[in-house]
Every structure is written in C-alpha cells, then in structure tokens.
Design brief:
Elements lengths: L1 H22 L6 H9 L13 E2 L5 E7 L2 E8 L4 E5 L21 E3 L5 E6 L2 E6 L4 E4 L26 E2 L5 E8 L5 E5 L8 E5 L10 E8 L7 E4 L5 E2 L17 E3 L5 E7 L5 E8 L5 E8 L14 E3 L4 E6 L6 E6 L5 E4 L6 E9 L4 E7 L9 E7 L6 E2 L6 E6 L5 E8 L2 E9 L5 E7 L3 H5 L6 E6 L6 E7 L10 E6 L20 H8 L3 E6 L8 H4 L11 H15 L2 E11 L1 H12 L6 E5 L10 H7 L23 E7 L8 H12 L5 E5 L10 H17 L13
Parallel strand pairs: 34-35, 34-36, 36-37, 37-38, 38-39
Antiparallel strand pairs: 1-2, 2-3, 3-4, 5-6, 6-7, 7-8, 9-10, 10-13, 11-12, 13-14, 13-15, 16-17, 17-18, 18-19, 20-21, 21-22, 22-23, 24-25, 25-26, 26-27, 28-29, 29-30, 30-31, 32-33, 33-35
Helix pairs in contact: 2-4
Length: 717
C-alpha cells in the first residue's frame, strides 16, 4: 500500500512538473539584446583612420591606440612620413569657404556669387555682390511652377536646377501637375485634424507630372532671359532613380565648359526609352543624338549617374547594360554615332569616379571581375579607346577610393564585413603601392565580445547564379541545438538586404540584438537585387511580388544542410517599405514556410504607390498585372502570425497600402496584429525605438515561444 501511494505521489509530481513547465515559458534576457543594440564598437578599434588630402597634396590623418592619439603627415612625392603631436602642428593650409551667409532655401552658383530660389512658384535670383533679388520668371503658379521638387514622395522647397560651370546659365523646368491626382493625409490631434494634400501620381493615371525644360540666362542680371528648349514636355523621370534630383542636382544634364551647349537625357514614362539630346542654350534649339532602348528598364549606373558630356573633345561617355553587363561606350557628339566600346567583360561598372580628358583615361569602380564576393568594389583605369585596362586596387575586399588633388595618387581604404580596414597609398598610373598608412586592430573589440556576421554563398532557387549573404548568430551559441531563423529582407530592386560589404561593426547592431534573443538572423542578396548583371537584376521584372522569396527559401534550405543549426520549422521574416511588402507576400504566398512576419510600411499594392517606381520595375498598368501582385488579394492564405505597422503620415508609402491589406484580412476573418504610429512618417522617427521593442516582443513570443519583459525600455547612453 505504501509503495502504491509512493508511486501515485511520484506520478502526481511528474504530472505537476510537466504541466508547470508548459505553463511557464522561458524568460528572455532583453538586457543582452539592448547591450548589443546600444554597443559603440568604434571606441575599441585601434589604428582606425580617416585620412584626407591637404591642398598641398599631402595626406594627414589621426590614429588612436588605446587612449593615445597621434597625428601623421605623409608626402607621397617624397614617400616621407612625419609624426606630429597635434592637428595644429600639421600646418595645413586654411581652406576658405567663400559661400555667403544666407538664410534662403536656394542653390548656389559654382562661384558662390549667386543663388536661385523659389518664391510664389517662380524662380528668383539672389545676387550677393549687389544684394539684389531679381525675379527670373513671372508666370508660375500653384501646380504649374518653376523648378518645383514636389512630385510623388519627394518634396522640398529647394529648386531643382543645374548651374553652368561659368555660373551664368541655369538649366531647369516648369513642372505641370495641374491635372495630376492628389494624395491626402490627416494628422491626429485634439480638435480638428490638419489635412495634408499634395500631387502624387499613381501607376496607370492618365496624367502624370511633366516638365517643360528651359534655360535661364543670367549673364546680365539686368537683362535675364528665359529660353524654352524646343521639345515637347518630358515625363518627370530620370535615368537612375525615381526622382530627378537623386544626384544632388538636376539629374541627367551635362554642360559644355563655356555653357553654350547642354547634353541632357529624356526618359520615357516606363524607363524603356532614353533620348540623348543636345541643346543650344543660346537659342533653345535641340538635336537628338541617339537613343537607347531597353526591353525592361534602363538605368545609368549602380548608385550614381555614369554618363557625361566632354565638350573639349565633343564626346559623350555613355553607360549601358546592352551586353547584359554595365559598361561604358564612347559617342561622337557631332554625329551621334558610337565611336567604340570602352569596357567589356562579365563584370559591372558601378561608378565612374574620375575622367582625365587630357590623358583620355577613365577611373571607375567595378564589381564582379575579381575572384570572390561579386559585391566587392575594385578600382580600375582604362583608356577612352578601351586599351590599357588596369586593376589598380588588388587587395581582396571592398574598396573606397580617395584621389589626390593632382590626380597622381589615391588612398585605398579596403575591408570585408569581418575583416578590419587596411589603408594604402598607391599611384594612379599603375597602382604601385607607396605605403601602408594603417591596418586597423580589432583585438580589443573582440575582447569586448563583438562578433562579425558570417558571409555565405548558396545557389539561386533556379540554380542559375551564386547568391551571397550574411548570417548573425548568438554569441553564446550551442551548435548542438537548432535555432529559430529570422530573415531580414529588402527585395529592391533598387537596393538589397545586406546593404554594404565593407567592415562596419555598428551597421548590424539590430541583427546582433535579435540574435542575442536566441535567433539566427539571415540577410540575402537575391536575384532581382542590383549590382550584378542586367539579367540578374531583371529576373523578376514585371513581377515584383516575387520579392526574392524563392531564393530566400532555397537559401535557408541550403544553409541548413551546411550548418545544421537552423530550425526551418520556425522561420520568421521582417522588413521595412519594400521589405514590408515582401514580408506580407512571404506570409501570404508561402504560409507553409514563413510562420511569423512583421511587415513595416509596406507598399502592398503598387497601384497605391507613386507612379515612377511601379512603372519602372513592373511596367505600365495593363489589365490585372498590378492586381495579381497586390498582397490583399491573398489575405485568405494567412496561417501564421502577422504584425502590420505603418506611419499615419507616411508621405512616401501612404498608409492606405496597409489599410487595404488590413481590410482584406478582416473580411477573410483572419487574426493579425496592427500598430499605427498616428503622426509618424515613413521611418517612424521618435517612435522607432518602440517599434524595435515590439519587434523583439513579437518574435520572442510567437517564434521562440517564450515570455518577454513587459514594456521593456531600451536606454541609449
């Protein structure tokens, strides 16, 4: 009897322990995540320098080892290095800023004697020597004003202009938005809300913003002239991005030295047609030089506009992906004919850095030619005729280049995600190494517990390309167990999930923080992301709902076979903007794989997002081609846990994109979670820290199956 009671008592204890264990989920230490998020790694890196050139062509920089700082001055001509005690002892020539003090919102001329600004939808000139304000145009009015920067998501009070080199002419436009549709947002406040409205064209609209190009001659400020260019209005489009000022000035305009000629590019509504044109700025006469036609979409570079007009030789250096790779071509301005292809091969030119017209040599950044990671940028030089091609920065890694004022030398700062920077000085003619300025030491950083993300490579889902990415694991990781996975996604196609491939120890703090909560965080550059071949970039052209998701799934499956510690039964995903669109698409189109998602500020239906992005990467609205990609159409597929977040005053991706998805989920009787930041814009601003904490909470509770601290506060010191 006693034995029976003892057995019964023991069984009850076991049952109580099992029930109690199921009721008490593990509690996660948020302090570890907060410490990772707020960690300032730069403090613990030695010999990390940011060198720069003096006006005398010498390199000066500061290096720190522990608490000791030293200043150095290096002369590449004599190959001599000098140590000095402080920056003041460098005897650097004073660089004078001749920009006048002025409180206006305008654009200065190159010689800083003038500035142009907008007043009452017209352009005005501020002449600093005389102190006069001169009205340049008189017939501008609301939605038909001059140099206005307010089409779609981009809004600014600064004028969109391009000054001639001699500061005597201005290339700009009159923007016609009179019949363009409006976008509306309403503030949340006590009493009557404030209505914000502005012109925001959408894909498929019969009328979108157009620009009427003009030249303004200000050589004589007492007799300024407006000279219309003799062409029909152009679409508000540019060759690089979905705005016409992404370069910092009026995109796709290149002046002759004397200001008498202007080469510009007119981009078609869907970015498939580029017309390269030459304008006589004295008369407004325009001649078409040549056209570039793309079956998908044209772009003039990867991060910067790469074409330029060389008036001294009447030539144009043109960028094209017509061979499937981004390369340079030389055109004759007088005839409009192709003279020769400058670069060729299975690699991509991402940025033209310097053009030496006298020596007829081009210096450029290229990717994908050297062995290893194809996202690492290297420096090359080549002649205008395509001969004497030379790699100038042979060190393995991602290179950042800084040329000397005389163009004879360059500073080469290169690194990898997990490899500290090495800084060298080389010659521009053949890349000869002159000296190594610094090799950063991250031993103290590692002693503080910092760990780098790990690079990896897998095959694309179609087995067509090698794909590259990084993953971040907990520092106290146990490789004998499996960890839930979180995918951080930005599908592009104008950007990617990793962002950068050089050493930047603080760039991945958010991912490190999530990893410290008990996850493996994965970031993958999938096909459709940029910086590779055109076929790679265009792989999902016309179907942005693909969102690299097939590659993401395939990559995780391949990684699990290699690593063994990924729990593919517990996969989460999150992203912002395009990443929010991709996250919801993942949860709705692949519900068997993605179990938890956080979709932040997503453009879930591109019929409700600005015209230029959608019409560039999807094409013109035709039938149901946009509807088939809209996330709300698949709301009934939701199985996992989905959190939707959006700013109520988001003027980039209006919140109605998320409201459409919310409405469809309600109608489908689906459970989901929603956060609206009533007065936040696209990036949430002051509310971002709250979003970070809610992101932690959501994945910990729904993916890790654990409790989290209630209303944890992340404190930045």
């Amino acid at each position: 009897m006693k034995s029976l009671l003892k057995l019964l008592f023991s069984s009850l204890n076991i049952l109580f322990f099992i029930c109690n264990s199921q009721a008490q989920k593990p509690f996660i230490d948020y302090d570890k995540a907060a410490a990772a998020l707020t960690f300032r790694p730069w403090t613990y890196i030695d010999n990390l320098i940011q060198p720069d050139w003096s006006s005398e062509g010498k390199i000066w920089y500061k290096s720190r080892v522990g608490e000791q700082e030293k200043y150095y001055l290096y002369d590449p001509k004599s190959n001599e290095m000098k140590t000095v005690s402080s920056k003041s002892d460098l005897n650097l020539p004073e660089v004078k800023d001749n920009t006048p003090e002025w409180s206006g919102q305008g654009v200065f001329s190159p010689d800083k004697t003038k500035a142009v600004y907008i007043k009452d939808y017209n352009l005005w000139l501020k002449d600093f020597p005389s102190g006069r304000d001169i009205q340049l145009t008189t017939d501008g009015y609301l939605y038909y004003g001059y140099a206005t920067d307010n089409a779609g998501w981009r809004q600014s009070k600064y004028p969109v202009v391009s000054w001639s080199p001699g500061s005597d002419r201005i290339a700009t436009f009159r923007q016609d938005e009179r019949e363009v549709g409006d976008m509306y947002l309403v503030t949340t406040q006590v009493g009557h809300p404030e209505l914000k409205s502005w012109k925001y064209p959408l894909p498929g609209d019969s009328v979108v913003a157009k620009i009427e190009r003009i030249i303004i001659d200000v050589r004589d400020i007492n007799n300024t002239r407006v000279i219309p260019l003799q062409i029909p209005p152009d679409f508000h489009r540019a060759t690089l991005s979905d705005d016409i000022i992404s370069s910092g000035t009026f995109d796709d305009n290149s002046w002759s030295t004397d200001g008498n000629l202007l080469v510009f590019v007119s981009t078609g509504r869907d970015h498939k047609m580029e017309k390269v044109r030459l304008a006589d700025t004295r008369t407004g006469a325009v001649r078409e030089l040549f056209q570039e036609v793309s079956p998908t979409q044209f772009e003039s570079g990867q991060g910067t506009i790469n074409w330029q007009f060389l008036s001294a030789t009447n030539e144009i250096i043109w960028y094209s992906e017509r061979s499937d790779w981004g390369h340079l071509y030389l055109y004759d301005v007088l005839t409009g004919r192709l003279k020769n292809q400058i670069t060729q091969g299975n690699f991509t030119i991402t940025r033209v850095l310097k053009t030496d017209v006298a020596s007829r040599v081009i210096y450029f950044e290229g990717k994908g030619r050297e062995p290893g990671n194809p996202y690492h940028a290297y420096l090359y030089r080549v002649g205008f005729n395509g001969k004497n091609f030379k790699l100038l920065s042979p060190g393995k890694g991602d290179h950042k280049i800084n040329f000397s004022p005389d163009g004879k030398y360059f500073i080469d700062d290169y690194s990898q995600i997990g490899v500290a920077p090495l800084v060298e000085v080389r010659t521009c003619d053949n890349g000869k190494l002159l000296t190594t300025l610094a090799h950063s030491d991250i031993s103290r950083l590692k002693e503080k517990g910092w760990e780098s993300p790990t690079e990896f490579s897998v095959r694309s889902s179609q087995d067509k390309w090698d794909l590259y990415g990084i993953y971040t694991t907990p520092r106290d990781m146990d490789t004998d167990r499996k960890y839930p996975v979180i995918v951080l996604i930005y599908p592009g196609p104008q950007g990617g999930s990793v962002g950068g491939w050089s050493f930047s120890p603080q760039a991945h703090n958010n991912q490190r923080a999530l990893a410290e909560l008990g996850f493996v965080v994965v970031q993958l550059e999938g096909s459709c992301n940029p910086q590779r071949s055109k076929s790679f970039h265009d792989d999902c052209y016309g179907n942005m709902a693909e969102n690299t998701l097939s590659d993401q799934i395939s990559a995780l499956q391949q990684l699990q076979k290699k690593l063994g510690f990924l729990d593919l039964d517990k996969v989460g995903i999150y992203g912002h903007s395009g990443g929010g669109f991709a996250t919801a698409a993942a949860m709705l189109r692949h519900p068997e794989f993605f179990k938890v998602g956080i979709a932040e500020s997503g453009n879930h239906d591109n019929r409700g997002y600005e015209d230029d992005w959608g019409e560039r990467y999807i094409g013109l609205l035709s039938g149901d081609n946009y509807a088939l990609q809209a996330n709300q159409e698949y709301a009934s597929n939701l199985k996992g846990k989905l959190l939707i977040a959006h700013g109520g005053m988001d003027d980039n991706v209006p919140p109605y994109n998320s409201y459409l998805l919310v409405d469809a989920l309600i109608k489908a009787n689906k459970d989901f979670d929603l956060i609206i930041f009533p007065n936040a814009r696209h990036g949430y601003g002051a509310d971002n820290m709250y979003m970070i904490r809610k992101r932690w909470d959501y994945f910990v509770e729904n993916l890790l199956g654990a409790d989290h601290p209630k209303e944890y506060k992340i404190n930045f010191k």
